[in-house]
Amino acid sequence: MCGNNMSAPLPAIVPAARKATAAVIFLHGLGDTGHGWSEALAGIKSPHVKYICPHAPVMPVSLNMNMAMPSWFDIIGLSPDSQEDEVGIKQAAENVKALIDQEVKNGIPSNRIILGGFSQGGALSLYTALTTQQKLAGVVALSCWLPLRASFPQGPLSGVNKEIAVLQCHGDCDPLVPLMFGSLTVEKLKRMINPANVTFRTYSGMMHSSCIEEMMDVKQFIDKYLPPVD
After folding, report:
1. Catalytic entry in 74, 85, 174, 217
2. Among 3.30.70.100, 3.40.50.300, 3.30.1330.10, 3.40.50.1820, what is the CATH number of 12-226?
3. Cα–Cα distance between 217 and 203 in angstroms, integer?
4. Cα gap 144→200, rounded to integer Å
5. Where in this chain does the record put each Phospholipase/carboxylesterase/thioesterase domain (predicted)?
6. Are the CB atoms for 38 and 10 separated by under 8 Å?
7. pTM score over 0.85
8. What would the pLDDT profile of 142-166 be if each residue is shown by its tens digit?
9. Is 119 a residue of the active site?
């Protein structure tokens, strides 16, 4: 990916069944790898779409007593006023932008790429989409929040993704990233980008995980914003 990240293994990839004309880059949550999500996405795949699930580098995480685990950036605490790893978040976003550039080099235009993720990966996908100069097709943000939210404007975003489509999903029984974080994030997004393009779905009884109903909503979103071109 980048010179500073040679230790992370190559992404788990679900190749397109025919020529790939679109891609989904999906980032896993803290302590996980890309393999589980590549399997989940294989279950809802479209034949013209390539699914890329990178693995986060292993690093010590403050929240977990500095134990080393796969993590996109350091997490210091889980309350809304916890200090954030600004340097780590910005570096991780640069690494994701490099992944997008790689797909563009492979022949898939950036506006045919959806960025997505779960929990910490969803947070990073939102942050990257709102700060990149690469025009994207959409963002799928599952059980997550917007990092460094104070660094964003109070009003509308300028930049190439000010009209981007966002599907945000959250379980109403999430004990780790409470539903309130999702609700506050969606309110902030609706002030920054066209509110008509922001969809917020909640799932009754779902904890910090996914469910079939959510995956079907994700599939519908991907099919809508990455339709076949041939």
Report:
1. 174
2. 3.40.50.1820
3. 11
4. 12
5. 11-225
6. no
7. yes
8. 999 999 999 998 888 888 999 999 9
9. yes
